[in-house]
Amino acid sequence: MFAPLELMQRKVMGAGQALFLQLPNIVVACLLLIIVWYGSKALASLINRISIARKRPDLGSLLGSLARGALIILAVLMAAAIVFPTVHPGDIFATLGIGSVAIGFAFKDILQNLLAGLLLLIRRPYQRGDQIVVKGYEGTVEQIESRATLLKTYDGLRVIIPNSDVYTSPVVVNTAYEQHRNELMVGIGYGDNPEDAIEFFRQAVVSVEGVSKEPPVEVIPWGLNDSTVDLKVRWWSKSSRLDQVHVKGRVILAVAKAAKAHGVDLPFPTSVVLFHDQTEAVDGDRTQQREGWPAGKNPPKSRTQLQSVPPKSAETPQP
User: Does 314 reside within a domain?
Assistant: First the structure.
């Protein structure tokens, strides 16, 4: 009757005795984990400081996180081997190797973005603070993380673009160089002298604040349209979006003032629209309608009517 109870007591006493015997190993394993935890934080902080000193903070953040994660995983395996002597790290790695294929498929996108982010941070086609255009989005790079690149658009929105998309797509880096060229098309009238307009437009743009002296300002004859002679004004300024927008506004204002001061006509396209009301009573009566042809009692015949009238024969007697 008391055999099951005695068996249970023996089992509990055996487990307690085994736990007491393993207590030193558990303490050592916990101390190992605590030491590695704080040591990995110190290592990540050191990597970050070195990267910031070399002006590569995003790369330092990623490498610090990877180093810390690797140390913690290694410490967990060592602690498991200490607490459970029958468990060998080699067996754990073999098990992980068998499951690595399934893990790779499950985290394919994450691993792609991680690798792409690491390559972007190492090669540095752009960096934090650059203004770029990618996947139809334009803005300033706030941060390059392990998974995505963070953009702040010019109207104050945040765009998160996966690193794999950035790495495999064309990227325009607007601030890769110190200066950027901009241009403005100006149409003058055919009654104005293009050579004079070229000179005073050039002088007006040269005096604009923010326009670079080198390369010099250019005003080039660019085309002959229906109502204008087109002149293309080209200048260089700082490559940031703020400078580009404000300098272009000042250039437009300077060109308009120069044209007004020198009496240059800036024509605009005009068109004439004729409306034909087919519901009126005189529709088709060309003696009363005025839609572009001469009025009168004997209006010219339409082309279709002229083509439908057979030519008169020479033998036909004249009335």
Answer: no
